[in-house]
Amino acid sequence: MENPQITRMTLIAVSGIVLFFLSNFLLRYLMGFSGPLASLLLALIIAAYMGWSVAHTLGRTPLLVERARLLWLYGGFLGALFLAFAGYVFLSAELDAVALAMLFLHYLPYPALAHVFLSERLQQVFLKPDVKP
Asked: What's the whole-model pTM score?
């Protein structure tokens, strides 16, 4: 049985969180692009980065414990962040069902797409050797 690389998964999760902050700042505030489409685009880019990083860091598909750790750290931190933002909005203004649903739709693509890009099938795509002519 292979030894799980827990520290590497933690570093990839932390780099995904840092990338979340930097890319949101760049795309939303500096470039003025916002809305659920921006969240979907950023989640896709970050998930692709995380999937590629895992495949090339480990050189194999991640074990279940490694994949779970990465998803729990990444999704859990972003979930706590969005929950804190919802609490702030609730305390400063009214947080109705529509606003809560919109906030959930902004959060959902991040862990969902990370889960997809860490799947066995896509990890095999990232692991294919480069073909030289």
From this structure: 0.87
